[in-house]
Amino acid sequence: MFKNRAEAGLLLAPPLKQHANTNSIVLGIPRGGVVTAAAVAEKLNLPLAAVVVKKIPAPHQSELAIGAIGPAGTVYYNKDVIRNLGLSKKELAKQAGIARFQQQEYQEKFQSSPVRLKGKTVLLVDDGIATGATVLCAIAYLRRRNVDKIVLAVPVIHPDVMEVLLGQVDVYVVLEESYAFASVGQFYREFEQVEEEEVVRLLGAYRAR
């Protein structure tokens, strides 16, 4: 169990030390993932930015992701979950519309100007991965930006999701895998909600150019 998101980032940094002071960049997934990513960026002396991805929630089940929406219209759908829920095209379009609006709001708040990614090694960081929807959407977006390499770095992940992600990234650093995965928060002693102001502050402190 991790004390908090920042400590998790400090624990992720040593396995990533070969990227310190290089042309790499750390990308955090808002909101909580940015806190973990900021600790990695500080330890490795790397710039930090956000890859703004918003999950598409299932109707009446806000914690269940049926997909995710990322920058530049990037969309990922979890077809198995959608099929199991029996969602209609109308229901799917409604949920995607809600997520798209929220993603655009976050994009304006957390990344007012484009970040140079082409040819870079990207350290993609989140505070934990339960379903993988937001991370898979982020990866799809990064591939479209022609990055050189994607290094996934997360404190904890569900093993079944890890199997899916293995073929999607070039390198991965995972501190813990657990089948007993109800929520990311269960692996932290402190897991308070990260406010938008905190994300803006951290991104400003380690701003990518």
Helix content: 25-40%
Which CATH architecture of the largest domain? 3-Layer(aba) Sandwich
Number of helices: 7
Which stretches are low in confidence, meaning pLDDT under 50 for 5 or more residues running?
Answer: none
Strand segment tally: 8
Q: For the record, what CATH class of the largest domain applies? A: Alpha Beta
Spatial order of the strands forming the largest sheet? 2-1-6-7-8
- Percent of residues in β-strands: 15-25%
Largest sheet: 5 strands, parallel
List the helices and strands and how they pair.
Blueprint: H1 5-12, E1 25-28, H2 32-44, E2 48-50, E3 54-58, E4 61-69, E5 75-77, H3 79-85, H4 89-110, E6 121-125, H5 133-144, E7 149-157, H6 159-165, E8 171-177, H7 196-205
Parallel strand pairs: 1-2, 1-6, 6-7, 7-8
Antiparallel strand pairs: 3-4, 4-5
Helix pairs in contact: 1-2, 2-7
Description:
It is a single chain. By secondary structure, the chain is α/β, with parallel strands linked by helices. The protein folds into 2 domains: 5-52 and 114-205, 3-Layer(aba) Sandwich (Rossmann fold); 55-109, no CATH class. 38% of the residues lie in helices and 22% in strands. It has helices spanning 5-12, 32-44, 79-85, 89-110, 133-144, 159-165, 196-205, and strands spanning 25-28, 48-50, 54-58, 61-69, 75-77, 121-125, 149-157, 171-177. The strands form 2 sheets. Strands 2-1-6-7-8 form a 5-stranded parallel β-sheet, sandwiched between helices. A 3-stranded antiparallel β-sheet has the order 3-4-5. The radius of gyration is 16 Å and the shape is globular. The model has no long low-confidence stretch (mean pLDDT 94).
